Amino acid sequence: MDMAAMRASIWQAVALIPPGKVATYGQIARLVGCPGHARFVGATLRQLPPGSTLPWHRVVNARGQLSLPEGSAAYQLQKSRLQAEGVVFRNKTLSLRRYAIE
């Protein structure tokens, strides 16, 4: 799969994450047929244009934490969007068992 097709597949997979659920970068990579490319998933989401409606905020790291720098505006935006969807954080971590997609 070339990089453009991989990006398009990542966008499609992220678009399917329902409100109140999350996926890890690794899950998205596996879903699009590119296991081991979790960092590429992150890079793809970082390159979204401003104002994108893709629910990027529903992608978290494998520990159930946000990967953005804590205290940054983007971190606060991601956390507040997830909380607005009913996701509960405990000590900066959310329960993947409870909130991760199947």
Distance between the termini: 24 Å
The tally of strands reads: 4
Helix content: 40-55%
Question: Which structural class do the helices and strands define?
Answer: mainly alpha
**CATH homologous superfamily designation:** Winged helix-like DNA-binding domain superfamily/Winged helix DNA-binding domain
Q: How would you sum up the global shape?
A: globular
Order of strands, main sheet, comes to 1-2
Poorly predicted parts: none
CATH fold-level topology:
Arc Repressor Mutant, subunit A
Reading the helices and strands in chain order gives HEHHEHEEH
Strand content: 5-15%
Quick one: biggest sheet? 2 strands, parallel
CATH architecture: Orthogonal Bundle
The count of domains is 1
Mean of the pLDDT scores?
Answer: 96
Radius of gyration (CA) equals 13 Å
Total helix count?
Answer: 5
CATH class: Mainly Alpha
